[in-house]
Amino acid sequence: MVRLITHNMLTCHVKNCTKDNYPLVFQDAAVEIRPAEPNLGFIERFLPKLEWSALVSTAKALGNDSLPDEMPEDKEELRSEEFLTKLHHVLMETHVEEGAMVCQGCGHVYQISSGIPNMLLAEHEVGR
User: Fold this and answer.
1) CA dist 88 to 4, 66, 73, Å?
2) Which domain of life is it from (predicted)?
3) Where are the domains of the chain?
4) How do residues 21-71 score in pLDDT, each as one tens digit?
5) CATH class of 2-125
6) Which residue, 28, 32, 82, 92, shows the most beta carbons closer than 10 Å to its own?
7) Are 111 and 80 in contact (CB under 8 A)?
């Protein structure tokens, strides 16, 4: 499933695509919200791995503007149940079921079908 936690780590790997290859931009996305049991400790530990601006812009493009534009600097706010619950919802409960992810650099399209992104590249697209 393409959840935003996974999407936040994906880049384009087409040969010679090194500029503007992150984040991949959703196109014609069919989004489904699937409630999941929160693991706020996991979310808190995952925070340093997130590319915040990419996450926020992607969430907004998918219709969710619950996250602040800047990651809070206050450690108490970062650990608050309210903040971590909002982040859990965006990262773990937002699923893109159909559509595509498009590279802003080279325009390569990664199709998404039944929640599964096709990240395979044709032989001529693979960098060596």
Assistant:
1) 10, 11, 18
2) Eukaryota
3) 2-125
4) 999 999 999 999 999 999 999 999 999 999 999 999 999 999 999 999 999
5) mainly beta
6) 92
7) no
